[in-house]
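Long-time lurker, first post. I've been practising inverse folding by hand and with some scripts of my own, and I keep getting stuck on stretches where the structure tokens seem ambiguous. Below is the full token string for one chain I'm working on. Before anyone asks, I'm not after the true native sequence, just a reasonable design that respects the backbone. If someone could post their per-position residues I'd love to compare against what I wrote down in my notebook.
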């Protein structure tokens, strides 16, 4: 298979991809063209078709598989496919494993690890709340399958569970350095911070937002889920409930990243920073593995990190070459759109990818 993540400029492409976005547009010269977002489990790439765009667009729909022929080309620093032909492919003829990426970790092993890390909690009420989720069979089946995001980090089946296991482990490590931290509150906050994503995101042929995910969002959905479980536990302390709700509502850190509140307790501050750390490192590693540009000392410009990323010696797939991009090139790229505009770009699920500190709901 010609994986999207391995395409290089000038490659002739004859392959089946999933259409995740479709639009017929008109260029400045009045010519109609078809613009697609094509995907497989290694990433996404833009596809453009200029011949008979209206006619070809009527042959398939978004979420269909299509076989395309064309050439990979670099356009303004981003790889795209200039398509020559396109035809719809029946779902039954497609190996779905080529399109749905899964966590490299075994989900049952991750659940076992999560249970072990949370088994020795001293706070009875928080332990009961945690077990209310862990022992909910329907919830756990969703939890083991849900991605942590659509595009930016842990964006694969089982990604949310992997992200949560990372975060709980990191939180427990950090708590050892700060004696005043409530370890149980921090642990439960790490486990539950993104729990609403089991209702925000769904996986069929690709990762998609659910209707309630688009309309309500995972922070509000997670808040509802926590309150529902807490109300089933007799005598759950009001102060403890308030603190846990605050962690849920503040884990994005800043208003401009969609956070209803900013962190105002130690545990919420830790969750915010570790959440961002886990997401950014996962994205960094994924970028090195499957970006659709040529290998070398530097990656392509990363919108999320707002910079080029350096390939250190020893990274898998890295073949350093002489030279590299100058700082002035990065400055010129960033100048096309202000960093602040990029960072403000996502307050809801429909907004485009942004740079700088991670808005974690995409």
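-- Answer (accepted) --
I ran through it position by position. Result:
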């Amino acid at each position: 298979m010609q994986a999207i993540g391995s395409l290089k400029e000038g490659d002739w492409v004859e392959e089946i991809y999933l259409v995740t976005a479709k639009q017929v547009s008109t260029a400045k010269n009045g010519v109609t063209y078809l613009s697609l977002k094509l995907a497989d489990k290694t990433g996404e790439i833009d596809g453009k078709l200029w011949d008979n765009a209206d006619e070809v667009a009527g042959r398939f729909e978004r979420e269909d598989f299509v076989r395309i022929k064309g050439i990979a080309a670099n356009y303004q620093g981003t790889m795209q496919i200039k398509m020559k032909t396109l035809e719809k492919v029946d779902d039954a003829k497609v190996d779905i494993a080529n399109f749905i990426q899964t966590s490299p970790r075994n989900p049952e092993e991750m659940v076992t690890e999560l249970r072990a890390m949370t088994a020795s909690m001293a706070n009875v009420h928080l332990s009961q709340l945690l077990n209310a989720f862990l022992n909910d069979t329907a919830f756990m089946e969703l939890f083991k399958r849900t991605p942590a995001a659509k595009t930016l980090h842990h964006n694969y089946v089982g990604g949310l569970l992997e992200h949560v296991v990372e975060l709980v482990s990191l939180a427990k490590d950090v708590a050892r350095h700060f004696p005043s931290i409530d370890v149980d509150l921090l642990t439960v906050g790490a486990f539950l911070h993104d729990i609403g994503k089991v209702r925000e995101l769904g996986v069929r042929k690709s990762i998609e937002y659910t209707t309630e995910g688009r309309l309500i969002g995972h922070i509000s959905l997670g808040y509802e889920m926590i309150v529902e479980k807490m109300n089933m536990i007799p005598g759950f302390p009001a102060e403890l409930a308030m603190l846990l709700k605050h962690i849920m509502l503040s884990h994005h850190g800043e208003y401009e990243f969609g956070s209803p509140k900013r962190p105002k307790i130690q545990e919420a501050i830790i969750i915010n920073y570790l959440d961002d750390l886990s997401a950014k490192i996962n994205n960094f590693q994924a970028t090195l593995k499957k970006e659709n540009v040529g290998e070398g000392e530097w990656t392509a410009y990363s919108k999320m990190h707002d910079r080029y990323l350096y390939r250190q010696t020893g990274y898998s797939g890295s073949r350093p070459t002489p030279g590299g991009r100058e700082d002035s090139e990065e400055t010129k790229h960033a100048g096309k759109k202000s960093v602040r505009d990029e960072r403000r770009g996502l307050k809801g699920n429909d907004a485009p990818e942004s740079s700088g500190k991670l808005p974690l709901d995409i």
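A couple of notes from the structure itself: Residues 317-362 have pLDDT under 50 and may be disordered. Residues 266-290 form the longest helix (25 residues). Happy to go over any region you disagree with.
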